[in-house]
Amino acid sequence: MASLRKIAPFVLGFLSVLVACTSEEPTEVVDEFRTINIADSLGLDSGDARIFILPAPLQVVSALHVQAIPYKPGLISDIPKELAGNKEYRIALNLGINTIDLGYATINSDHQMGINYATNVEKLMDLLGIRSALKAAMIKRFENNASNIDSVSSIILDAYRASHEYFQLNQREGVGLLILTGCFVEGLYLATGVDQALSNRQIHGLIALHKEYAANILLLLHYYRGSDDVASLLTKLEALSVELETLNYTYNSATGKARLDMPIQEEKLAAIKAKILEIRNSVRI
Length: 285
Hints:
The chain is mainly alpha-helical. The protein has helices spanning 2-5, 13-18, 39-42, 59-66, 88-107, 111-127, 138-144, 149-169, 173-193, 201-221, 228-245, 266-283, and strands at 249-252, 257-260. It has one domain. The radius of gyration is 18 Å and the shape is globular.
């Protein structure tokens, strides 16, 4: 499973484009989630860009697998069925959430659960108008490769990249950011929900990395706060960030792992778990 270990240190290129300084006028805003020029607010000079470290789509599930953390299907067994009729905001967040659940089921060889979530991912991409960005039918590829974890991981990453490339080309990076936020939410939900979350120091490090992810997502989502939905989400993310703030860790950029100064105590883990569950419940279809 060496290839799974390589998935973790993954930086989303679309975010560097989102905040890159240019000499052009800001793009005219015609809806809530079009590209916006935030370079001036970040204090960047013309031609500069800032890279934000954010969670890879399969980072948490691959880390749990490498650490041989027992699969807990109950965490994702409530599979959404009524996907149509939701706002773009909620659909985008749930595309991220369902992508993580797809990865979690697949890496743990739960083929039927994986197929169910792959079907949802394809439907959510349809609702966002982006399934055409895929080079081949996702479900057919998934079914043909369901027993090959590396192949399925590649399929998931292909769908994820296709989504972000579509929104970048169509100046809709705000929607891409919502997808990534859904990945963040579900990843932390799984990391805090597995049975060894309190006892395993490697899981503690994985949880601690979300302190930086949360700060970066908050900064970027802040520029879409004009949306009532985003404003409500920001309030909940800020409360989560307060709980994560007390986690002190050392980050190893070579391995993509973090090590805490001291283990996460039961009370702190319970507080983080409660906050991320509240966020998940508020956005999940």
